[in-house]
Specification:
Blueprint: E1 8-17, E2 20-30, E3 35-39, H1 46-53, E4 61-66, E5 69-70, H2 75-81, E6 82-85, H3 97-107, H4 112-125, H5 141-153, E7 159-163, H6 171-188, E8 191-196, H7 199-205, E9 208-213, E10 216-221, H8 223-230, E11 234-238, H9 244-251, E12 257-258, E13 265-268, H10 276-285, E14 292-296, H11 300-308, H12 315-318, E15 324-327
Parallel strand pairs: 3-8, 3-9, 6-7, 7-8
Antiparallel strand pairs: 1-2, 1-4, 4-5, 9-10, 11-13, 11-14, 12-13, 14-15
Helix pairs in contact: 3-4, 3-5, 4-5, 8-11
Length: 329
């Protein structure tokens, strides 16, 4: 890597597809040895950004440098310096895991004996030693993702790009992959650029995150700092449609209304759980019966909602969970 440069530096990066602006003038900087989370809904521009950074797409305009090299002018040098595990891994189902790792090493110019040594180490690291000589077509989805991760590490890259690495995985496989990413970062010091639409994934792994929406970076910083800036817990109230307007009017007395989870009205609640009895009494006074009430601590979904005016797709099922749930009789 060029002395004094950051592993990833992006200035005014734009990508257009005809009249569609997928990435609209973003700036990013990823420091050496950090896990950087790139968070946003489907279609926000995450994968397009990654494909430009790994030289699969040419930027329409702007500058991007990876490992100190310009992604357009020095694309071969970028490719030698990075490891990439994209969302759709193209793994030959007729080859074994060991054979694919050996082939990957050969493609990177690594001597056969060294490629075999690294392959064996990586198979053990990702928990695939027992399946090393099985055809990949027999692997589960989680096993394929772990093999794809190992292949991205064969040449000991300076920067590892993971594009939606746990999409479609079951919870146990997802947690196992998280642990592997943590190990790579803490033990080997690998710089990781992680794109995800899962709030918990970004919160668990990333030291810093950037939130992208419609091609724009709308928030950037440490997850704890971004959540602290939102500040207040959020009360989500579910009512039947006939009483929604009345409920909104009542809840607005207690704090600022904010985009809620599907089927709920949400309000930032300065008093937190201590305000619940007053909220219930106020709703009763206008004959509104809440079907449920849920208080959540500030989350990355709240950060996204504050920045964009809506909730992140899938946030309810993947976030870290509520601070408290109050069922109503």
């Amino acid at each position: 890597m060029t002395v004094g440069s950051a592993p990833v530096e992006v200035e005014g990066l734009v990508r257009r597809f005809g009249s569609l602006v997928a990435v609209d003038g973003i700036d990013l900087r990823v420091e050496k040895g950090e896990v950087f989370g790139f968070l946003g809904p489907n279609g926000a521009g995450k994968s397009t950004t990654v494909r430009m950074l790994v030289t699969l797409l040419r930027p329409t305009s702007g500058v991007a440098r990876v490992a100190g090299f310009d992604v357009v002018k020095q694309a071969p040098a970028v490719r030698r310096a990075i490891g990439v595990a994209l969302q759709d891994a193209a793994l030959d189902p007729l080859m074994t895991g060991r054979e694919l790792l050996r082939l990957q090493g050969t493609l990177h110019g690594i001597h056969r004996a060294e490629a075999d040594r690294r392959g064996d180490e990586l198979l053990e690291r990702v928990g695939l030693t027992a399946a090393a000589d099985r055809r990949v077509g027999t692997y589960s989805g989680g096993m394929r993702r772990r093999l794809d991760l190992a292949m991205a590490l064969v040449h000991e890259p300076e920067v590892l790009f993971l594009d939606e690495p746990t999409t479609g995985l079951d919870p146990m496989s997802r947690v196992a992959l998280w642990e592997e990413v943590r190990t790579l970062n803490t033990q080997l010091g690998t710089t990781v650029f992680l794109t995800t639409q899962y709030l918990e994934e970004a919160d668990q792994l990333a030291g810093r995150v950037a939130i992208i929406d419609h091609g724009h970076i709308v928030r950037e910083g440490a997850p704890a700092d971004l959540k602290a800036a939102v500040g207040l817990p959020t009360l989500h109230v579910a009512v039947d449609g006939a009483h929604e307007a009345a409920a909104r009017e009542v809840l607005a007395r207690f704090g600022d209304l904010t985009p809620g989870k599907e089927g709920t009205i949400a309000v930032r609640l300065p008093g937190g759980a201590a305000s619940l009895p007053a909220v219930v009494r106020a709703l009763d006074e206008v004959d509104v019966h809440a079907e449920s009430m849920e208080i959540t601590a500030p989350s990355l979904d709240d950060v996204f909602a504050e920045a964009t005016g809506r909730r992140l797709e899938g946030a309810e099922s993947t976030d870290a969970g509520p601070a408290g749930m109050v069922p109503t009789p």
